[in-house]
Amino acid sequence: MELLRGRLLRITVLMLVVNFTFNWGYWGLQTWLPTLLQDKGLSMSASLGFVALSALFMIPGYVSASLLTGRFGRKKVFLPYVALAAISGIFFAYSSSMTELYVANFALAFFSLGAWGVWNTWNGEFFPTALRGTGYSWATAAQLVATSLAPSVVGLLLAQATGFSTTILFITAFLVVALLFAAPLPETEGRDLE
Questions:
Q1: 112, 61 Cβ separation under 8 angstroms
Q2: Does 1 fall in a domain?
Q3: If exposure means fewest CB atoms within 10 Å of the residue's CB, which of 42, 94, 120, 168 is most exposed?
Q4: What is the pLDDT of residues 12-60, one digit of tens each?
């Protein structure tokens, strides 16, 4: 209950929303990406190859975010990376050629996973030491709820034949919400933890 009192209430609510929406955006897309790519004309094997190749772009995303975080801070890296992931998601939704599809998704993979690396560190630093484990557990619970719901809801959208662009935009909207709720969170880079 201490997480819901005083100054920690605001941080707890913001942190839970970011964990939920950011995780939703990731798993909502990744679970159904091969199926979504088939709507764009790729075969199942080509879709799986596309996903595997996209995963390679996650690695430099992690590395670049790590290097930049040490120089600029967690917040100043996380927010632009999430914004660029959302912009990449919009371009991905409206891709009209295979080249655009690949470039947009590679950018989405790069920025979203780079942001994840920063978030996993930053997320653990919001609470005083006595409450850090509990706070991080709540964060994990919010992620698990999103991980459980997102694939089912996106699957329902696909069953309703919402189409590629609409489904991708719906998923990307969760990244935008994560960005908006992360903006007021405090920077922790270089600060002594309580």
A1: yes
A2: no
A3: 120
A4: 999 999 999 999 988 888 888 888 888 888 888 888 888 888 888 889 9
pTM of the model as a whole: 0.90
DSSP state of 185: S
188 inside domain: no
Q: Which domain holds residue 77?
A: 6-182
Q: Do residues 81 and 65 touch, judged by C-beta distance below 8 A?
A: yes
What mean pLDDT is predicted for residues 128-154? Answer: 90
The CATH number covering residue 48 comes to 1.20.1250.20
Alpha-carbon dihedral angle through residues 94, 170, 113, 194, given to the nearest 10 degrees:
140
11 in a structural domain? yes
